[in-house]
Amino acid sequence: MSEQILLQGKILGIEAFLTAGGPRGSTDEELFAGRSQWLTLISEVLPRALLAELGLSRMLLGSSGGAQFLLVLPGEAREAAGQFLNAAGQQMVDLGNGRLKLLWSFTENLGDWSVVRKRLNEELQRKRNTPLVDTGLGVFRPFVPPSELSNSSADSYFSDELGLKVREASVIGWSPEAPALVRPGAGKHTWALSSNLSLDGITIARHAAPSDDGKSAASASVLARRAEGKPLWGVLRADVDHLAVRLRRLQTIEEHVQISVLYKQFFAGELEVLCSMPEFWRKVTILYSGGDDLAIYGSWDALIGLARELQRLFHRFTEENLKDFPGPEAKTISMALALAPELDTPVAAVYEQAGRNLDLAKCADKDCIYLLGRVLEWKRLADAAELKDTITHMLEEFRGSRQFLAQLRGFYQKEIVAGGSPDADAAINRLGRFQRRFHRALGNSRDHEFQKLRAHLVNEIVGRKAVPQPKPGMRVKLRPAGLVAMEWARLASEV
After folding, report:
1. Where does residue 224 rank: exposed (0-12), middle (13-18), buried (19+ CB within 10 A)?
2. What would the pLDDT profile of 380-418 be if each residue is shown by its tens digit?
3. What φ, ψ does residue 316 adopt, rounded to 5°?
4. Which tens digit of pLDDT belongs to each residue from 340-368?
5. CA-derived radius of gyration, the chain
6. Residues 33-63, buried b or exposed e (16+ Cβ, 10 A)?
7. Second label for 124, Cα 20 to 30 Å away, from 179, 209, 423, 494?
8. Which DSSP state fits 471?
9. CA-CA distance, 281 to 8, in Å (whole number)?
10. In whole angstroms, what is the distance from residue 62 CA to residue 440 CA?
């Protein structure tokens, strides 16, 4: 019986590659969507193509997707696999204009999985820290700067050969002449594309909101105009909390493959179904879904609703599938929303801002969302949604003026930005003056429903346990969900 080895591959430089600008005259949305789809597909296609080229069973594929993959190979295939990946890595460097790098590591399938995994990761880390060793990329050959034509050719591949064609294709193909390229419908080896888990095919989420004529994907500006309230679009990014810790604690390679496939199937299958719901299908477009993360752009109001529903589904998913795994790792998800300041803002710029917002959310806590300038726990997002509904209801039913919302936001921000006055009596006095102005603006209404809504609004701003007669020097801690609700209501009420 021949020796078994494990092969682990990983693509580096993804963020820099996605956010890099394209040549003049290129369409930003098509280019960004093509790059995102290529990254999703190449980590699925490369390991399958390697097995097909070596004449090996597809059952040797352990896990794939999310810019990495894991394979089981016979020992005699080590050299051939290295040559295959070296050729793909060279073309990948050219496609990414030097920003992308494919790394891989081999080790014998001997010992406990924790030891095997450690050897694989240490080899990857060694190559990452010593990029000039054993790369095989011709580091010391004379430097030839990439021509504008070559860059345009690569970007044309992402924009023209992928994009909408991938969203409509039933199969994806690969050929050894271009080992880092994938093409819809053609190639020496082909695989079916599906949003459902398949042993023979590739699982991928690729929903795109249709344009008004139905012949292409809707542009960001069109998605913004479909929003209720202010016409804005944004990018939503999500990432599972501490999935790497969960994977490190797994005891066997079977558990590693099981968990990897479960998360990939959730993000591809559930996301595709969710985006096809009536309230989302014309308002959101999937950029990519990986093994533990995703990115979507669309109308700002649809993205907020999508984030809430996705978190609910993820919570139910982990409760059902990870109940036998102790610890909270990989059982929660954090998200972040970034809104485009202008309708013609590049998608790459908003995507990059959403990434920074996601980092802020993860630094603050886990199982939370960065939304409209604040980091909220998911249960506080429900409070913000309820408070937003209260404010919009008061504006609509009691003919409240726009000044009400502006004054309320001004009061709230005065207490948050730069601290305002820390004294509880001063803060509550200001809130009292605001209430009296609002009361007069509504014609001194004594309606019971109005009084109930107003009391609820004040409780949500200063907290239900606020001291009615504060002592000098006491501090009032205004609820962060209140600021989110203010901004949410403002966007929903503007046209």
Report:
1. buried
2. 888 888 888 777 776 666 555 555 566 666 655 554 443
3. -65, -40
4. 999 889 999 999 999 999 999 999 888 89
5. 26
6. bbbbbbbbbbbbbbbbbbbbbeebeeebbbb
7. 179
8. P
9. 37
10. 68
What's the Cα-to-Cα distance from 326 to each of 258, 264, 266, 319, 389, rounded to whole Å? 16, 21, 20, 11, 38
- Buried b / exposed e over 197-223, threshold 16 CB at 10 Å, is eeeebbbbbbbbbeeeeeeebbbbebb
- 191-231 pLDDT per residue, tens: 988 877 666 788 888 888 998 887 788 889 999 999 998 99
**Nearest residue to 157 (alpha-carbon basis) of 29, 293, 35:** 35
- What is the Cα–Cα distance from 418 to 105, expressed in whole angstroms? 51
Residue 484: count of CB within 10 angstroms of its CB: 25
Among 371, 422, 70, residue whose Cα is nearest residue 238: 371
In 3D, which of 352, 328, 363, 123 has the Cα closest to residue 243?
328
Separation CA 268–CA 113 (nearest Å): 27
Distance CA 281, CA 488 (A): 22
Which tokens is 61 given? 């594929």
Beta bridge partners of 70: 8, 63
Rounded Cα distance between 353 and 356, Å, is 5
pLDDT at 326: 87
What tokens appear for 410 in the block? Answer: 């001004």
Write down the pTM of the prediction. Answer: 0.83
Structure tokens at 429: 């006095």
